[in-house]
Amino acid sequence: MKKDDYQLRRIKPLDPTVVNKIAAGEIIERPENAVKELLENALDAGSTSIEVLLKDGGLKLLQISDNGAGIHYDDLPYLCQRFSTSKLEKFEDLQQIQTFGFRGEALASISHVAKVTITTKREGDLHAWRAFYVDGKLAPTAPHNTSAPQPCAGKQGTVITVEDIFYNVPGRKAALKHANEEYRRILNLMQKYAIHSEKVSFSCKKVGETVASISLSSRLSIKDKIRHVFGTLAVKHLKALKIPEGTINVESFHADGLISSADYEDKKSIFIVFINNRLVESIELKNAIDETYSKFLHKGASYFVYLSLSMKPEQVDVNFHPSKRIVHFLYDHEIIGAISDKLAELLKNTDEQRSFTMQTTIPSITMVKTPELPSQKNKKIYENNMVRTDPREQSIKAMFSSSQKSAALNSDIQHSQSKEVANEETPAESNPSPSPQKAMEDDVREEVEDGIIIPCELESIRQLQNEVLNSMHLLATNILSEHKYVGLVCPNKRIAAIQHNIGLYLVDYGKLAYHFFYQICLTEFANYGKIYMNPPIPLEKILAVSFTDEDVELYQKTRKLLIARRDMLNEYFSIEISAEGFLSALPCLSKGYKPFVNRLPLFLKGISPDYVDWLDERACLEGVMKALAKFYVPIRLLPDNATSEEISYMERILEEFFFPEFRRRLICPKELFEQMAIFQVASLPRLYTVFERC
């Protein structure tokens, strides 16, 4: 640019729209920052349950639902304006701030780079209010509509939906990584807050998926949450770090946390630090932790550190960084020194108890025995007590390409679902006549529909969920969460074998699958996917298989009931029935497994008035969900009729879907353990004893 051009340029204020977008770029760098801001707002509102729904890593859709205090109607016009806050009145208040949000920039910044919809309801309000925001201001949802908040249905709390983030900043959007990477970052963020927030439940899932990627209950302890997130081995080597108040000369300072011992091994280090319940980064503290661990670990070794520091609010500068990610605090040298000293003390104690296995390269050469410490001799593990497998190990089948597995699985599903079902032991599962059954199967084509999950919660569903939690058998649930699948034992009795530590167990996978799908029905209530029937099937054709000639009255009553309750069935259970009596869609509880179509008549009979009390809300919902869970349970394979393809399919679906899901999310009720659905048949020490006698 020429000198004359510089002389012609004058200084002038920027347009407010440009200013707001620049400010938004400092606060919201990627979807992860938006989730963090909204997550902290939900915690400030006193929420005990926070659910996050994402599409394309949050770029297309980002929705956070909480059950907090909600937002007052009169505050909605100012909600997304910059520097509008209920936390501050004067600058001096920053010295005493104890909430997460305080400057009023989070929602304002998000609304300048995305389209924001907020649905909120306070306790005592007759209904909820929905407002739409663009560029920090209320905006109409459609042309010629008013921009004022509109009344709508909703539960207590707030639902914030952020769509098309960075739609007006294409350069920022193009610079972001793949959607899966953004999703991974958000999951990592939520895991950290879930571990620290003891009385708050967290869940996060992708749009269209029935199973949450992270689901941590408020009932779990910190160690239990770490076990769910990072695995059992991580918790095994954790030690408590505690620095009581008064240990150092810093007023009101104390620290709690969990640190890994020198025996901890993982691919990468985990460092989580909260100061006054705020997730922050501290480069000085991390460098000190790294230096302390380097004295006890070999180069490149990893560690796990979770710290919660508490100090006076005026000792922390939370306004140091625009995104509040980095904070400065007084007496940092004293605090970091105390943490490093305590960490070194714990590591020294565990380092003295470490043991190593040594073996010469050539087995024929005499082994050189190294002297053992007394602690090592006392902790010697004999071969008959060694665990041979780890549930996280890869199997040989896992090394095949995903496309090969998918093609084989789809082939088996198509073959197996074309077979007839017989000899089920439940009262509602009588053998259907084959001719109408076959005719019905010819009309079924399965398609799964994805959709945005809308929060839905009823008191009866909450009661049923609490019943499941209260009925949990801790030992059985622990066995399932840490087991190693062995194989199919008896497809007729639906028995499989699993290993847990040094024990071999037989399990009734039919009963486990029933409770598994019932729990999915509860956790994903009113948010199931759909399996479409193309073309739709008349109810008469299905019910004709279920009922005998003597049940004509019940047959007619069931048909009329299903048509009359079709709106409720569609809203809550994704069962689409037309006014003319055609069934066009069924609920899809999992993309990895579809129910056997020929059990559809038994399912409809199972929700007839003889089996479900349709006049009581709780009994009705429970009855339909239990019938739906029974519909999804794998069939028995009879010895005389089962083909090798059917058995191969059952072996594959058990290993690749059912038992991995049992390990990940099944809560085993006490009744299953009492019914011997999980039964230990052998253990390694007992087998060694038998061989020694032989």
TrEMBL record:
GO biological process: one example: meiosis I cell cycle process
Region (Disordered): 407-444
A Pfam match: Mlh1_C
Compartment(s) of residence: Nucleus
Protein name as annotated: MutL family protein Mlh1
Keyword vocabulary terms for this entry: DNA damage, DNA repair, Nucleus
Keyword DNA repair applies: yes
DNA mismatch repair protein S5 domain residues: 226-348
Feature: compositional bias, Polar residues: 407-416
Species name: Schizosaccharomyces octosporus (strain yFS286) (Fission yeast)
GO molecular function: ATP binding; ATP hydrolysis activity; ATP-dependent DNA damage sensor activity; mismatched DNA binding
Main location: nucleus
InterPro entries reported in the protein's UniProt record: DNA_mismatch_repair_CS, DNA_mismatch_S5_2-like, HATPase_C_sf, Mlh1_C, MutL/Mlh/PMS, MutL/Mlh/Pms-like, Ribosomal_Su5_D2-typ_SF, Ribsml_uS5_D2-typ_fold_subgr
